[in-house]
Amino acid sequence: MKCSLLLLVVCLALTLATSAHAATLDATTNLNAYPPMPLATGGQNVSTNGSGVYDFGDKDGNGTRNDSVDPPGLDFGSYRLYTDNGSNIILNLNGGDMTGTATITNLDTHCGVNAGAVVVTNVHDITIGKIDTRFTVGNYISAYGGAITIGSAASPAGNVTIGGLESSGYSWSGGSGGNVTIYGGDVLIRHGTTNDDILSTSAMGLCGGTILITSAGSFGVRDIKTYGDTENYARGGDVTLIGTSSGTCTIRDIATYTTRIAKGGLVTIRGYNSVSIRAIDTHGYKEIFSAPWRGAGNVTITNIVGDIAITGAIDLRTTEVPATYPSGYLNLQAGGNVTVSNLDLSKLSYAAFDANGASYITGLLTGTNGAAATGAADIGATLRTPSGKQIRYLKKANPALGGQSLTLADKGGTPGAGGRLRPWPSAGTVVIFK
Q1: How far apart are CA 115 and CA 61, in angstroms?
Q2: What is the number of structural domains in the chain?
Q3: Beta-carbon-side half-sphere exposure of residue 18 (alpha carbons within 13 Å)
Q4: How far apart (Å, rounded) are the C-alpha atoms in residues 416 and 27?
């Protein structure tokens, strides 16, 4: 009997320990005036401290951090936290998890004025729905999307799964998209098994938001869009993705272009085990200003342990500009293979391939004149690879090259000092058995 009772107590304790993963939000709550946040777990409330932070290590907000939410962390359930007057939402989760419903916008500051920021610090794993800090229809004279910050360099989050991020702005005289910054382990922008987007665009304003993702594990997203659209001076936002050799980077499309008199955003990706992207568009338009408001965005993907694959269009051109305002360059460096599909040399200033494995162009190679490449005259120093290395083009996709092998420029652009452009598959030996 004693053994059975002891076993029951142990089982009950384990059940409670595993179910009490985070305190549960009690209701959808408007935080415009920073009221206490109601938690269903134990009837607890969390008040803001003197800095406007909902600190789960300091429920009463007096700054002593001696009255923690128990258990630590926050479970949204089917509820959300929101503001609609430009107020920020700042959460310190005291080392706990943050969970929610993938199909719900759990953190929401979107409004018709400058949207509030969302900041989440001192957090372990995150699995929630969308975060929305975009500007909506309202005061179009100057409207900013709110910044989104998860973790920090000194205290990164654990694994992060968020069902979409949007922080776009809209303005005639100065608004921009909100910056998105995430430090975590695996960083996955998805709901369920479907990848979703990071959107921080700007229409009629200054620029799209800057995106910085630092992931100790893998990074996955559908599209990253920071383009400047519709009117003059809307610059594309820069995108920086930093990983480690233990993680992959998987993206459908990156769009940092501008459609009117401004500069495309830079794209920098480094450190991952492998990178897979469908399309990249950083094009600039009708540039008339001095640096940094000129040209298209450069694309730099380097220090990749394994393979780099770009399977769709690459557009780094600058249109209607003086020659001194160049298109963007493409710099790809990997320990494995580098593969692109169609490569149009008229839509970039140069493309440099540096693979310890092999480099492949599996589709059409277009020359600097915008027509199918025929030889050295329309490739020039625009296609580059180090001496001793090769770029292999698919022979059947490039009949205009006629199976030629050419010596390319090196990575610094010195003509004839680099590796070779060769047809693939190369000519073989035919053996006839009788």
Answers
A1: 24
A2: 1
A3: 6
A4: 68
Helix (H, G, I), strand (E, B) or coil at 48: strand
**What's the pLDDT score for residue 111?**
86
366: which 2 tokens? 């277009």
**19 contacts: CB under 8 Å, gap ≥ 6:** none
CA quadruple 126, 130, 133, 138: dihedral, nearest 10: -170
> What is the sign, positive or negative, of the torsion defined by CA atoms of 71, 73, 77, 78?
positive
For residue 235, the one-letter residue type is R
Structure token pair of residue 430: 């035919």
pTM, two decimals, is 0.91
In a domain, 279, yes or no: yes
pLDDT of 401 strictly over 70: yes
Q: Is residue 41 part of a domain?
A: no
Is there a domain that residue 99 lies in? yes
Give DSSP secondary structure letters for 155-207.
S--SSEEES-EE--EE-SSS-BPPPEEEEESSEEEEETTEE--EE--EESSSB
- Spatial contact of 146 and 177, defined as CB atoms under 8 Å apart: no
Tell me the average pLDDT across 197-225: 88
pLDDT at 322: 53
Domain assignment present for residue 416? The answer is yes
CA distance 246 to 305: 9
Question: Which residues span the domain enclosing 155?
Answer: 84-424
How big is the CA angle at 222 (ends 219 and 228), to the nearest 5 degrees?
105
